[in-house]
Design a protein that fits this description.
Helix content is 30%, strand content 0%. The longest helix is centred in the first third of the chain and has 11 residues.
């Protein structure tokens, strides 16, 4: 449960409500912790996005490419 502590804290802070143990169990069933290495992509070109990410530590960059490839 400690791997989810940052997510629980964030939800409680933003919503202004406390999560019950049942709420936490439900979230843990639907979220899967994953570590990304430096320079590893969350989603690559051509992939269909199936997931939402929640960053606990570190940062990420977002890139887009227009029709001309810029």
């Amino acid at each position: 449960m400690s791997g989810f502590a940052a997510l629980f804290d964030y939800i409680e802070e933003v919503s202004g409500k406390f999560l019950s143990e049942d709420d936490k169990k439900l979230l843990m069933m639907h979220f899967k912790p994953k570590r990304l290495r430096k320079r590893q992509y969350f989603l690559q070109e051509g992939d269909v996005c199936k997931y939402t990410g929640f960053i606990v530590k570190g940062s990420a960059r977002t890139f887009t490419v227009d029709e001309k490839g810029h």
